[in-house]
Amino acid sequence: MFINSKKLIASAAALLAILPQFAISPQYIYAETSAVTECGGWFEEAYAEWDANAIGSDVTVSYAAAGETSFTVADSELIRGSRVDIPGLKGNTDYTLKIEGSSGSASCQVKTLSYDRTGYAHQGFSDIGAYNDDGTLKPDVTVIYVTNENKDTITYNGKTGLYNIFFSAKPKNVCFRLIGTLDVPAGTVANDGSHNDGSNMLYLQNSSNVTVEGIGDNTDLIDWGIEMKRCTSCEFRNLHLGNYPDDAIAMTGNADILSEHIWVHNNTIEKGYNQFAGNGHVDADKADGDGSLDMKWAQYITVSYNEFIGCHKTSLVGGRKDQFQDNITYHHNWFNGTGSRNPRVRNAHVHSFNNLFTDNTEYGICASYNSKVFSECNYFERTKSPLYAINMGKDDYSGTIKSFGDVFDDCQPDEGLAYQIIDNRTDSTAIANLISGGESYDNFDLNLYEYTVQSPADAKTDIQQYAGRMRSVAAADIPAPVIPVETSVSGDINGDDIFNISDVVILQKWLIAVPDTHLENWKAGDLCDDDELDGFDLCLMKKKLIEK
């Protein structure tokens, strides 16, 4: 959210002391003429809007840091109508913007903010993606502007179209700047109900030092998503994704080449949608898309300042028990009305701190299959099963969770699970696996990267203001929490508000892929509570029917 200077001036000094890497400063608006109607700073970028009648046509915009006399001309692609957005500026820095056109000119002064680069992605690694850590673009980077009109005709390294460039051009040192609403690029697997995986997906493969970012406050990737495969030093930021039929953002590798040093931050991700879910080809649990942000065969990952809105299967860490992924940070994310997987973790060490969980209907953080999660100073409000350390579904072992400083507001952690709440940050603790032979907690949190933690209440305030993609001043109010729809009758997969033999028959037909079998509400049949429908659920459903 853009900064309200009246609210922040009094508390700026205190906030700066708390968050040295996240420099919060008031927005400045000073114009030489009334032609500038709005201007301000955001994270390592600036923006301005003007009166088109006063400025005229053939507009150019230039900028210079305070004290500098040499101005840099902004790329013409960054000027859309009577607005400019300029990324690649130094964080926590005053800038002057000059707007010049055929009828007049104007200028304004703004101050940028700095992205918070805390987390495993930056541990022992700098300058992730196409940008330096100070916010400026690396000197050897190729900038490619992508619009709905040119997404299928842009070229790079002998390949044409965004899909083909991602898939086979092996982008290196590239900044993809996405502008406006982008429809599904040509080349993807069509979402026509005949494919269970990969519908409307782009695959960024074998790439390094790549940033994919939205420009301004209105970049929308609707109905499609992106997966990174075997990538290093990649960044996704300032994007809005929704209605994806498969994944929104994902990362993976293989046993030989992992994706690593990946930073996904300041995005707004709403739930997906697949109208073909439960049709016999597409899994019933993909009605709301698949994963909103999934990872497997990946390491040194930071997920920060994202807002997940109403997502169902939000973030899966480890798709199977034999996959390796490790050293993952979640911080300052808002899990707003999400159902499950916030995240769900297998075979990984995860540091989750200063996140906000609101009205989560299934569970909060799930540690399963030998995972170790350090949950620190998170704010849980109305969250079912906030610390869900259990051998979930068919996993052979549980995971373990160590909790310090978490706030549980109108929610109560379960009894008998593999978590422990400690009173002192430096305490070493023994948390046994729920299943004999499984791994216990190893206190990895006693040797983490450098970071500064806020109180849960302060983190909640900052998350509500700054998580998600860039917001315009007109949308500066704190977003409202998303209240999920109440869960239907257990077992009622045909949606008639009762559970009976018809539901059992439908599930049985769906499991053997009888054509045109439709599940109205697949989740009601997930009696194993593992986000999957299979024969185990059918057995429990039959038992439930007999006992009815």
Task: Throw out a few tags for this protein.
about 550 residues, mainly beta, 9-stranded parallel beta sheet, 7 helices, 38 strands, about 10% helix, globular
Can you describe what's shown?
There is one protein chain. α6 runs antiparallel to α7 (535-547). The protein is built from seven helices and 38 strands. It has an eleven-stranded parallel β-sheet with strand order 9-12-15-18-21-24-27-30-33-36-38, with no helix packed on it. Strands 13-16-19-22-25-28-31-34-37 form a nine-stranded parallel β-sheet, covered by helices on one side. The chain is mainly β and 548 residues long.
Low-confidence segments: 1-32
Task: Write down the Rg.
Answer: 24 Å
Question: Going across the major beta sheet, what is the strand order?
Answer: 9-12-15-18-21-24-27-30-33-36-38
Number of H- or I-type helical stretches: 7
Described by strand count, sense and barrel closure, the largest sheet is:
11 strands, parallel
Q: Which outline best applies?
A: globular
**Would you count the extended β strands for me?**
38
Mean pLDDT: 89
What portion of the residues fall into strands of 2 or more residues? 25-35%
Give the structural class.
Answer: mainly beta
In helices, the fraction of residues equals: 10-25%
Distance between the termini: 51 Å
